[in-house]
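Listing S7. Sequence submitted for prediction.
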Amino acid sequence: MTKPTIILATSNGVGMGHLARASAVALALKEVANPIIVSMAGGIAEIPSFMGIRCEYIPGKDRMWMPREKWDIYLRDRLLALVEETDAKVLSFDGVIPYPGVIAAKNANPNLKLVWVRRGLWQKKPQRFVLGLQSAMMDLVIEPGDIARAYDFGPTATRKEAVLTSPVSLFRKEDAMSREEARKVLGLDLNRPAALVQLGTGDGDVNEKMTAALSGLLGWKDLQVILTKAPVDKDGKSLAPEGLDLKVARYFPLAKVLHAFDAGICATGYNGVHELLPAQVPTVFVSNIRGTDDQEARARWCNDFGFALRADQADLADITAKVKMLQDPEVRERLSQKCAELPDTTGGQEIAEMLYQLATTPKSKKASGITYRRLLVQDRFSRGARHVIMLGLRRLALVYRFLNPHIKVQEIDQAPPVFGEQTTSAELHPLIKSSTRFEHIISGASAGYRKRREEIAFAAYGKETVITKTK
């Protein structure tokens, strides 16, 4: 029997949660199906060489590589072209909002089965008002389990259309490296303590949290501090206090090397919680309150039931104090032993089985044209309402910027886009981050697919597209 093709699409979220879940599902699918991952997250650069799975990067609307009104059509056409090229039976979307372009792909191809992988623990954001319409367009809605689900009082908590699974994680006990192996891979001293810090940088308050957290590690004898990105602000100024031995280390998936660490300081996103705690890493969670994810609810649950420590994200002194507690070996041992009680994170396998079943079932749910049109109206209305609010703020910002001009940032290169089939992170990262528009193509694509992709790019960018191949 020929393996069915299943496309796993993800949005560009605040962290790596969407992409990590899609990766866990893809790994579980490999034996019985041909999974393909498409994502708007730059982290997709890490996937092909790690998993041996074909991937495509799709620029999100936030990249501004094309006019906003063309992006939904571009996304629809990209997905439909990939479906036709690979004969995919199922399109799964992991993200807070199924973009109009995703639903339009289903509407244009009624034989395509559409699945929404919808994480729980939502904050009460405006997106909740179209949950019913979005769900009605799906063949299946799946909610990846969350260890903190008991503290979910958000808009998805009482809905009945989703199938609940166990938590999803890239951490698997059987695949994780030993402490010694992981430390050798990361280039760490085998005998000194090591702490992992996974906090964002960018805005002023986020930078302050990083400094407060790192300050809590001062005084830990012989400590090695490992970060996944350099602790600097947008001007390159260090956010770290003097006296720490810092090392920036990139490894994907980080879940495989978590046994290298004696402690962790992390945002309370889905991905971090469901990797660090199953790996029994004593952790302090510092929540990121931006976005839809209710990280504070997840952090409170972890703290209340003794699985981790929660720092008050609004109190810099508390962040430093809670991190300092990790220097106590008894605290670390207590947290680590408690985490041993957590259930296995088998949700990736469960979701893979559902998608495979859907891919091998002949009939798909008929898309409702009326529901689709209602969604489009709602999307335009929401954008219009946001536009009115933002207009006033934008005018204030323009006045401020006139009085306080900043250095001009790099603009998007208006030259024809670059096409390429890159599969390594070393090749993909620079292209994705570049100001030059990059059209990524799955490896082994047909001549017909290449031609169709040129047509889609021509329509989106509004000028003649010249193929520029990259090495």
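Caption to Listing S7: primary sequence and predicted structure tokens for the chain studied. The first strand starts at residue 5 and ends at 10. Residues 369-403 form the longest helix (35 residues).
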